[in-house]
Amino acid sequence: MRTIQQTPFTTAEASRATVSGVACPLCAAASQIVFDKHGVPIHECSTCSHRFAQPPECDGHVERVYGDDYFFGGGAGYDDYLSESALLRAHGLRYAKRLARHIEPGTVLDVGAAAGFVLQGFCEGGWSGQGLEPNDAVAKYGRETLGLNIHTGSLEDFSSAEPFDLVSMIQVMGHFVDPREAADKVSSLVKPGGHCLIETWNVRSWTARAFGHSWHEYSPPSVLQWFSPETTTALFGEFGFTPVAKGIPQKWLNAGHAKSLLRHKASESFLAKLASGAAAVIPDSLNLPYPSEDLFWMLLRKS
Ligand SMILES: [Zn+2]
After folding, report:
1. Residue 1 Cα, ligand 1 centroid: separation in angstroms?
2. What is the reported pTM?
3. Residue 7 pLDDT > 60
4. CATH classification (class only), 59-216+226-254+282-302
């Protein structure tokens, strides 16, 4: 069994760590509570160092967290999701170009597709695809206004007669109540020799370690799982996937969205309050580069 000194705890976290009796959702080993965020205990696995939170109640988690407020109500989600369409399309196209170094375009399922702007970017890059989105209002927008094949529903309940060449999950893994069930489901939806693209936050990044419990991605109950490239590789490895490539995404953020996030965080820390005040002068329509050291993407191939 590992000692506290071998975990990525900061000294302050280590002094507060308590054995929780809650099993790690990745490897089933025991976990310790490292701190509380928004009144929710954040656990760290004593074996694989995965960090996670348990949702207050499992039933209806997806519907509750991804209601219309997530896309249009500010807070931890979007101030106005539709205003980010061009940035999201460009993000999808960047991935299509980056993946072209490793794989031929084919069929893609974008999980957590929202209205499908990222999917549109993939399609511009030669892919043909479908999206899966729990929020019916944005999924309907994608179907009716953008003419895309977006299904309303969760990954757990989705099935397809034809498996896909690629399943993409861009900033989705952190939201699952049961990440093993999600990885198993993804594996069943990918053809043998097909791929899975993950983009998620890196709990072992310099930024996450430096900010400790103030790191912006500790935002339960919307986010419940905090991965690293190592834990992602281990989890998907159990379901037949091997990493092919990984990197740090280039990301742009709409200033209106950044300001909305900062306003949401201003109540939590003095630094965020200062930043929120300073950012108020930036026009909402401006696109800002996001320093994405704490994000990573990984392309994995199914054997
Ligand atoms: Zn574990």
Report:
1. 12
2. 0.82
3. no
4. alpha beta
